[in-house]
Amino acid sequence: MRIGILTSGGDCPGINATIRGVCKTAINHYGMEVYGIHSGFQGLIDNDMEPLTEKSMSGLLNLGGTILGTSREKPFKKRPASSTSEDKPALIAKNINSMQLDCIVCIGGNGTQKSAAKMAAMGINVVSVPKTIDNDVWGTDLSFGFDTAVSIATDAIDRLHSTASAHKRVMVIEVMGHKAGWIALYSGMAGGGDVILLPELPYNIHNIGNTIMNRLKKGKPYSIVVVGEGIATDPEGKKRAGEYIAQEIEYETGFETRETVLGYIQRGGSPTSFDRNLATRMGGHATELIATGRFGRMVSLCGDAITSVPLEEVGGKLKLVPEDHDLIVEGRKMGICFG
Ligand code: F6P
Description:
This protein is α/β, with parallel strands linked by helices. It has eleven helices and eleven strands.
């Protein structure tokens, strides 16, 4: 068989380990040929690909980013009626045919899963792997990249504790996650946040203020507030989540408050050992799906087992933090404010 592999959407730690898992299994175990497609779906549209060999897999396990490059190209996005450019899905089908690719492996987040499902619906053989630091892809318990992002954010929160306490300040840290609060919840709890705000839960600035003032009464004149980037902010939505919350806390409590936006550091660099192994398992499983002809599926982690789910069930859904997540329930009992 001859397969193509692409990486699409925002990058995250563990993509290269997945490429390695797919390719090494395909080449060494199944004797398949593998083509690396450049810059996500753009490479399929432009027929921009290169053969990958066992040698090109060296040094990938701990390498951040993606050796194939990525883009946010969405080939199935509706074209304006006036557009004269060639139909992208048709170009994709033509290029896959001319390259004689038997299957395309799509590694990506929610947008990628949606495009992969549409390609499968056109009759193209597709297998996908979920990838995002946000952990919001529906149909898998975890996606690789999340553990690395949480450990980077936790380290940042640890570092904020000492400067918060030295200056008797409130430190607000904004973490990524898009519309989901997974990174805020896991890093906030692991880093000992006093207030943790998730997009999934409403918040009240008086509750937040009370938590901070109660800490002061107990002899703790500093607090750490962890904010998911997707929380609701000012009515015009012009301010970043962290900036808005820091300002509101200062008005509410009179405490000197500073904000930190952690940003892209969360998704750069080397994956944790957990993410390397998850990426390796998922990559290997993607190749198994191809070898056994089970197309139109997304690899997923269910409990401790690697399995897969039909792609048409995944597209267009988001996996959000449930209100009754045990970290929230136990955290509330410990006195942590979730809004
Ligand atoms: O990869 C996910 C994510 O990091 C989100 O948390 C964030 O909102 C988004 O990507 C920003 O990425 P970009 O600027 O590349 O669109």
